[in-house]
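Quarterly update from the structural biology core.
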Amino acid sequence: MTDTADVVIVGGGVVGASAAYHLAAAGAGSVLVLERADELGTGATGACAGGFRHQFSSRVNILLSLESVRMILRFSEEHGLPLDVAQDGYLFLVRSEESWREFLAAVDLQRSLGVEVDILSPKEAAELIPGINEEGMVGATFGPKDGRSSLPPIPIKTPGPSRWK
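Predicted structure, tokenized:
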């Protein structure tokens, strides 16, 4: 191992590992990942539930999620690793008028960027998920392309800094 690198990434979770992989694949030179744990992917990444969604209120997060979900859906094919993906949706229940106005503005932005999202009445939300308490609910949004995935087996024992070339 040398004492220099063309690119240094701090953090070996899903974001750091993905950035390292894609930079190396793009020919960025020697890519060094610094991770304080003994294994990559064992911090916040290892503790996450694997959920993904498109329902955000900022343009940049929506655009990032659109590309991230495309990458998740192609992961097994591109990397040959198992990844179970279920796009069974995220349902957000809103219980205040102020929050509802914010959600509706976010839906307008989401739709303008190509996100499929439904606006539901409390009754429609309860029909979608039986047992939901409609009392006090103003409305709901449902993203049918949101979902969850299993995490690939990325924890990798590292004796020190990891390098991709």
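The first strand starts at residue 7 and ends at 10.
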